[in-house]
Design brief:
Chain lengths: 378, 261
């Protein structure tokens, strides 16, 4: 950790980043990120055509004014404005939201269960860990596709990248489920050998995990899942290495996973049926950034005003199409969010705009909110 | 099948064996086919013994060479459990996938059957009973029971001990049962006596199991009888017992069944 602390980007000014809805001209950048990702972001295939289709679905989802169907996905990119000013590709990270897991089909995962077998005659009472194939997360909203360039892992950029999605959820709850989940990659080595897959999936597919995953992307993931055993997996029957891999995180996912844990996501219940990686879930209304976020009109303060003393916040505009979020110093005062007028541009807003645009902000540090939550009267 | 001739090495022909109801004190020198002590005769069971012919010119009674026990309407008081082997097929034409897999389902399928069990042999005997000898004993015991209750249409079953490895352990138990019931098979037998598997069933998985989750050695011995039971297995086949894919929960020895047609 100490080396991270010394990383030049650790002390990078938090206000040099902008998170925004991905646009169709981001395809090159997304393709670059998809190829750079070590274990592969399953929802971001390194295949231009598939990526283009997802990006199209995302831009349609942002632009839509229809009732949500559940098919929507929302892709976001993180830009480093300093790179942009230097004329370099500015996109350094991406993330996404899938409105409804298993849309049009089913979302499969294993649920951790304990069954107790008892025999009074043998004076034995055993707790047995089992994995039950289930559809509980079908229809839940998924946080997906988190990837940030390694140089940016230190510092606050990952906080903005991951948690801005929660501001989006809080701003548009009607588009999403109250049940929010996120999959993380499980243990696998550099060749893609995965102990959980080898002990479970391989017995049914006779192929490698990466191969099955490629097929799963080509078809629906549930198509693959339907070929898995539908009776519970008795964990004691698995090789030790596979038992140990259940709910274990691939090291590359530690950062995004820890951000979700701090948000209040729980990792006890579900694991991925392919690699045994943890699937975290929570009620949207229990997530810290959601509960601590507050909507309110902006009050732009002139440059050099006392905003320099305000605490750092995650701040977003309230546009579905054209969503942007930044890290900014802000303060809730007299029914307004006080921000430096220079932040307006990063949020895609104009200070001179008529009326005061609605913002949503949550404290960057997840301590107690300075004032009690009050719902603004409509 | 049982003609009045002598076999080529002049040993007595099968019909000269005597099969008759036995008494518990007559079989104390016998041990199980799995070399473990015999289960004591419980109330309601009948003991049948196979006695070799008296030596020429003497009237000295011979010790039984083998025995069996008949239990009627099993599992009605203390449940009995077996694994039923089955098949599942996972197929996906799009992936050119066709995979047929063995499954095991714990159940009480054979509850109410009549059982031939408690197989005992004399470890001191010069040779173990032949299949002809076993056949005579089996047929006698079944016929007597059917005369007693001619209307019964319950099937007959006979469990055979399963395969053990060179170290005397059951690969099936090592691969499956031991994970749920921490005892070694023989240690459990020592601690609770024969028939302890009745209680072990309560500790075993109730859901469908895929055999592919078991080690290959455990999969390989499902439905295989111990070599010591080969002659008995042959006799049971001749007596109309067949294997309908039930196995013992302890060592996966076959459970042979004879259904009244």
């Amino acid at each position: 950790m100490s080396t991270n602390a010394l990383h030049p980007l650790h002390s990078a000014r938090p206000d040099r980043f902008v998170l925004r809805a991905a646009r169709s001209d981001d395809l090159d950048d997304l393709e670059r990120l998809a190829h750079a990702s070590a274990v592969g972001i399953t929802t971001l295939p390194p295949d231009r055509a598939a990526l283009g289709a997802r990006l199209q679905l995302s831009t349609d989802s942002f632009a839509s004014t229809d009732q949500p169907s559940g098919e929507e996905i929302y892709l976001f990119v993180l830009e480093d404005l300093q790179l942009e000013r230097a004329g370099k590709p500015a996109v350094v990270g991406t993330c996404g939201i899938t409105a409804s897991a298993g849309f049009g089909s089913r979302f499969y995962c294993y649920r951790n269960e304990t069954v107790v077998h008892a025999s009074p005659a043998l004076k034995a009472r055993n707790r047995i860990h089992t994995l039950h194939l289930c559809h509980s997360l079908t229809g839940a909203t998924l946080l997906t596709s988190f990837y940030i360039e390694p140089a940016y892992e230190a510092g606050l950029a990952p906080q903005l990248l991951s948690r801005a999605r929660l501001l989006f959820l809080a701003e548009f709850p009607e588009l999403f489920s109250d049940h929010v989940a996120s999959e993380s990659p499980g243990l696998a080595d550099a060749e893609g050998r995965c102990p959980f897959w080898d002990a479970v999936g391989r017995r049914f597919f006779e192929m490698d995990y990466p191969q099955a995953e490629r097929l799963a992307m080509g078809r629906s993931k549930s198509f693959i899942a339907e070929l898995m055993p539908h009776s519970p997996v008795y964990v004691p029957l698995l090789p030790e290495e596979a038992q140990w891999a259940i709910g274990q995180l691939h090291p590359v996912a530690e950062l995004p996973f820890s951000i979700l844990q701090e948000e209040g996501f729980q990792s006890e219940t579900y694991v991925d049926i392919f690699d045994g990686g943890p699937i975290v879930d929570a009620r949207m209304s229990m997530l810290r950034t959601v509960t601590q976020s507050r909507p309110g009109p902006a009050l732009w303060m002139a440059a050099g005003s006392p905003t320099a003393q305000h605490a750092w916040h995650l701040v977003s505009n309230s546009r579905r199409n054209g969503f942007r979020a930044v890290l900014a110093r802000a303060q809730w005062a007299r029914g307004h969010w006080e921000l430096d007028s220079e932040d307006a541009q990063r949020l895609g807003l104009r200070v001179a705009q008529e009326g005061q645009p609605r913002l949503r902000a949550a404290p960057l540090s997840q301590g107690a909110i300075s004032e009690p939550w009050e719902r603004p009267t409509p | 099948m049982t003609s009045n001739t002598t076999s080529k090495d002049n040993t007595p022909c099968p019909t000269q064996w005597l099969t008759r109801p036995g008494r518990p004190e007559e079989v104390t020198h016998l041990i199980g086919l799995d070399t473990q002590p015999l289960e004591p005769l419980r109330a309601g069971r009948q003991l049948w013994v196979l006695v070799p012919p008296s030596a020429q010119g003497t009237a000295e009674p011979q010790r039984p060479l083998a025995c069996l026990q008949v239990s009627r309407g099993i599992g009605m008081e203390v449940p009995r459990a077996w694994y039923r082997l089955g098949w599942v097929v996972h197929a996906a034409a799009e992936m050119s996938l066709f995979r047929q897999q063995r499954t095991l389902m714990l159940g009480n399928d054979l509850t109410g059957a009549h059982e031939l069990g408690g197989w005992g042999v004399d470890p001191q005997a010069s040779a173990p009973p032949t299949s002809e000898a076993w056949l005579q004993l089996v047929q006698q015991a079944v016929q007597a029971a059917m005369l007693e209750a001619p209307a019964s249409s319950a099937p007959w079953i006979a469990e055979l001990p399963g395969v053990r490895d060179a170290a005397g352990r059951s690969p099936f138990w090592q691969g499956l049962g031991r994970h749920f019931c921490t005892h070694d098979l023989d240690a459990a037998l020592q601690a609770w006596g024969p028939g302890w598997e009745v209680h072990a069933a309560a500790l075993l998985p109730r859901h469908l199991l895929y055999a592919s989750f078991l080690p290959p050695a455990a999969q390989g011995c499902m439905g295989q009888a111990a070599a010591a039971a080969a002659a008995l297995q042959q006799a049971l086949a001749q007596a109309g017992f067949g294997w309908r894919e039930h196995v013992r929960i302890s060592d996966a020895g076959p459970v042979l069944e004879r259904w009244v047609t």
